[in-house]
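Predict the structure of Glutaredoxin.
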Amino acid sequence: MAKVEIYTTPTCPYCHAAKALLADKGVDYTEITVLDPALREAMTARANGRRTVPQIFIGTTHVGGYDDMAALDRQGGLDPLLAQ
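Done. Here is the predicted structure for Glutaredoxin.
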């Protein structure tokens, strides 16, 4: 299984949805809460300037946010990426 990292904030509904989708698939992930400005800046740099949460990384691939991951799942591309 690929390493999954998800940048979140505690009150973000899209973050909760992303974590639920990963949990439904039985995927372990590392959650990085970006309430600390330094962590948000690190996320923004890693996510090519995107400042919104969640930002999801699977292996070396920046998937994007929840909508991006859900669309990838609907297209059948999420499971192969997770299986890397």
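The chain has four helices and four strands.
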